[in-house]
Amino acid sequence: MSKFTRRGLLKSSAVMGAGLAMPTLITSPVAAYTNEPTGGSVTLGFNVPQTGPYADEGSDELRAYKLAVEHLNGGGDGGMMNTFTSKALKGNGILGKKVEFVTGDTQTKSDAARASAKSMIEKDGAIMITGGSSSGVAVAVQGLCQEAGVIFMAGLTHSNDTTGKDKKANGFRHFFNGYMSGAALAPVLEKAYGKERRAYHLTADYTWGWTQQESIQAATEGVGWETVNNVLTPLATTDFSSYIAPVLNSGADVLVLNHYGGNMINSLTSAVQFGLRDKQVNGKNFEIVVPLYSELMAKGAGANIEGVFGSTNWSWTLGDEGTKAFVKSFGEKYGFPPSNAAQTVYAQTLLYADACERAGTFNPCGIVESLEGFEFDGLGNGPTLYRKEDHQCFKDVLVMKGKENPANEYDALEIVEVTPRAQVEYAPDHPMFAGGSLGKCNPGA
Amino acid sequence: MDAILLQILNGLDKGSAYALIALGLTLIFGTLGVVNFAHGALFMLGSFCAVALSKIFNISKITIDPDKVDFLGNPLKVKTPYVIEWFGESTGAAIIDWSVPLAILFAIPVMLLVGYVMERGLIKHFYKRPHADQILVTFGLAIVIQEIIKAAFGANPIPTPAPDVFRGSYDFGVLLGMEANAVIYPFWRLIYFAFSTVIIASVFAFLQFTTFGMVVRAGMADRETVGLLGINIDKRFTFMFGIAAAVAGLAGVMYTPINSPNYHMGMDFLVLSFVVVVVGGMGSLPGAVLAGFLLGVLESFASMNEVKGFFEALYLPSIDQIIIYLVAIIILLARPRGLMGRAGVMEE
Amino acid sequence: MRHLSKSDKSTLIIVAALALLAPFILNPFPEGSALAQFNAGYPDLMQRFAIFGILAIGFNILFGLTGYLSFGHAAFLGVGSYSAVWMFKLLSMNIVPAIILSVIVAGVFSLLIGFICLRRSGIYFSILTLMFAQMSYSLAYSVLTPLTNGETGLQVYNDDPQYLMGPNSPTVTNLFGLEMRSTFTLDLGPWAFQFNFGYYVCAFFLLLAFYIAIRIFRSPFGLMLRAIKTNQTRLNYTGLNSRPYTLAAFVISGMYAGLAGGLMASMDPLAGAERMYWTASGEIVLMTILGGVGTLLGPVLGAGFIKYFENIFSKINETVLHGWFAFLPDGLNDAIVWVLHFFVGKGWHLTLGLLFMLIVIFLPGGLMEGWTRIRNKFRGGKDDGEAPSPTAATTPAE
């Protein structure tokens, strides 16, 4: 009953099952792995939210995917392919095959996301699935891809679990996670607000919220802060007034909002309405922290984010060559700068293609092998490592702040500090990531 | 004490939003006998009246500033709203700043029209149809309205702040002789509460003290007899549909500074407003208002740390997630027709 | 089978034939052609058609016969899926214990909720069921995370106990060793037809569910349920207590939902809380009304209709549209694509909403009425009384 033998059995029984189920009369030739591309093209599956609250984030991801496909096929100005340190990509598709893509709607629901991913695999012959904008969806689709034997490049997913207890051999995450947010934010917060602070947490009452709150609490307590209270808020809350109201009299002088998307916009708006940021508590200015930022959230919260600290995966205002190249080709094609979601999925698509080229095959096991422990630079995040042990990507994390007087709607956030990679690294067996195992890569078929 | 006072304020504030939406819903039901699943969408449309108006005020003349460059290195395009061009810096900026209150004037005719068109064009044909059909058609309509708004404004919430003078909050504690910061409450939320009370009162006054309202009330009680008296009750009911739409729309306009509106906010309110209507008693206007405030206050109290802690000790963590439903179920089991419902309505 | 009337028998045979040949019927367009986008004959979607068909048939036993409109049926679906996944985690990946448990648990759960909610009727009943379902959703999403795995959904992990798992047992869902995912692809010229074992398991249960539904519709019990719908007060005056009958109908339809949930988990061993959200319950109501309330075949059609839109229309993106109209001059192509892109891809909800409205406005009896009308036109107005006439099918359903 050890994991290893069970995995081995999975393969052998799959082969046996396939042998039994397929009479040899008029069947297609047995493929070496799921959806082995046979023609002159290869299909990627872009599974993003197109309806529901994160639809705009999904649209931005799709724009970046289309740009990546264009660049892979040799169109456009090549974007980050020119700055990428690996030079395996030649602009002639992947392994000489033209890149095509299909899109689907995750609706930010794990069921719908899996249905959509399945149709890409079963109907359209997609060899890789990527995208999504929530951890629930990422974990669900990652599990599916592991079973089906295709590669999954997670999009926006910030929960520790994605590469923690729910990690899978066929899945890779380019995005950072809750632990990294905490590790990057804590020193900046200490520098800005001092060691003697009392924090009040409002946390979305589900897995992502809990893991992020745990990470931030541990990191801030590490620099000497005290945690006054942690209040869980129901996911369906739209008006956070009754959770914000007691904060001022709790003796806390910092409010940490472990919310994402619409929840974060609403809770921050309420906090600002209650005038928390104009108040003095314990002789200090009251402050608000939003550990995870996105450009769209900043846009939705408007002027309320001024001076509020948070972290992001990437920002178009970075000055490195990769970023400049990407912002140029994205900006020229669409007329506005890309979000960090767009950069994440663009980089992942290039990385997947590059891994195929270096492995010389589309076989998921070959790709896993060439991505594990892969170190590179030039994709906008500085020197980056895809760690072998848990398929988490390690790179610099950005600490951002809401800009006081933004010049336009894309300029709402400014970089406070680029936290170096060494500072956000952790051991693969860190307790916050405990449990679960990668298992073995599954080529399916 | 101060915490309880705060949560009562919160509850009244939340409750006034629930009450306004539920009032319109139950008005439509009481007059036309139609279950309107698109009512949440009307609330959302109201919000987007405010968004649209602020967008209109911000329509800008684009001039090229050759000295500055944008992120791609092209000459920077400078936007100056036409309102500022025409009315000057200070007046123009004030108009933009006041776009939410001004949107009330904009929203009333728009929402009355929307209500009128909806009733004449669609709902009218569904009076005699089963409630299930009404639900399906209005739900379809709600989706269509939602998707049109999404196509026009995107899915992301759009911040639409209140005028600058209403920023900040009022310190009740000082007024009551408590220490500073004990009970503070945002100005705009206070205005929202006052505004809702006025709207609710005027709807009741209209129904109570005008001849028109009297006929409508009579029609609600016995439509056929009123019809036999030679009164064109349908026409008045159509007008009431418009009123209900306008009430939902105004609730939406005033709500925009509290939470940035997005295209699916109507659906978020829909279930809760149905719960409110049913707890109040189908077709009962005072019931809807009472239940709205009741559930609002209840929700606020349930979110208090002390209350949450108490229930957690009873192995019921996160009571705030289910308290409304729990209490509503108990009320419905104890009082078959909700708080103030009449017998025979929607009970077949 | 011999108890069935001739017309019921022929309906059942038609359904069986459709289910059996679905891989052909749903894949009319050759691979690689522009219209292949509209093919629905791949395993996952075919499974969904069958599963949601079962769900809608079950819902129709409650709503179509008694007129009680439950707005919380998705809760039973969710409970069923959770029980099934727990069986996979604790016993083995064999679907038999999973499906049995999911039906039982959903039955018990619906007995409990039905017992409370059926004390009220009309919209009060609907809102009560809605509130129970919303509570189940909230609890499953957060508070009961140890039991449901919350946001991420309940999955099978490598280190789960799986006590009945032998050294040779398959590690994917199976029926005594036959894997649900095993698929046989038949290549016929440019066509590729996929025969999936999992789908046929679902289809078998669909037929079983359909057969049981026919028997219920035609039984004295079914007649009693119709009497409740027609006039409950009068029924009560005759000294008859109608509640045991409605409760039985509620539990039966809850068990149907549990079966659907169990099957869903068997085809794809993950159970998420969103399955229980009120919009999911609403979807079941829409499927039934759209297909035709109180008809036998309608709910299945309605379920297929909605799932088809969700899975096929959402995948048509602008690139695909440009591909279709590539033969047109550039400007015209762009214009047509610009108009159409509001209705497909990210705009698929809009199309669905418009179709809801159109169908309910012009076909009050749902898709089944459309079918009856077409058939009557061809037969010159003759009706063999197989399906209830549209007016009977849509008597006030409050």
Describe this structure in words.
The complex is a heterotrimer of chains A (445), B (348) and C (398). In chain A, 37% of the residues lie in helices and 18% in strands. Chain A is α/β, with parallel strands linked by helices. The model of chain A is unreliable at 1-28 (pLDDT under 50). By secondary structure, chain B is mainly α. Chain B has one domain (2-51, 101-334). In chain B, 67% of the residues lie in helices and 7% in strands. Chain B is built from 14 helices and 4 strands. Chain B has a two-stranded antiparallel ribbon with strand order 1-2. In chain B, helix 2 packs across helix 10 and helix 11 packs across helix 12. Chain C has 398 residues and is mostly helical. Chain C has one domain (6-296): ABC transporter involved in vitamin B12 uptake, BtuC (Orthogonal Bundle). Chain C has helices at residues 6-20, 22-25, 43-66, 74-90, 95-117, 122-143, 145-148, 197-218, 220-230, 232-237, 243-267, 278-291, 298-312, 318-324, 330-340, 348-362, 367-379, 390-393; strands spanning 154-155, 174-175, 178-179, 183-188, 191-196, 270-271. Chain C starts with 5 loop residues before the first helix and ends in a 5-residue tail after the last helix. At the A-C interface, helix 1, helix 2, strand 2, helix 3 and helix 4 of A face helix 3, helix 6, strand 3 and strand 4 of C.
In brief:
The complex is a heterotrimer of chains A (445), B (348) and C (398). Chain A has 445 residues and is an alpha/beta fold.
Q: Can you count the helices of chain A?
A: 13
Distance from N terminus to C terminus of chain B (CA atoms, Å) equals 46 Å
Counting helices, strands and paired strands, the structural category of chain A is alpha/beta
pLDDT below 50 for ≥5 consecutive residues: which ranges of chain B? none
Strand percent estimate of chain A = 15-25%
How many domains of chain B, as an integer? 1
What is the architecture of the largest domain in chain A at the second tier of CATH? Answer: 3-Layer(aba) Sandwich
Shape of chain A: globular
Give the radius of gyration of chain B: 23 Å
Radius of gyration of chain A, in angstroms, nearest whole number: 22 Å
**CATH superfamily (homologous) name of the largest domain in chain A:** Response regulator
Q: What's the total helix number of chain B?
A: 14
CATH top level of the largest domain in chain A is Alpha Beta
Largest sheet of chain B: 2 strands, antiparallel
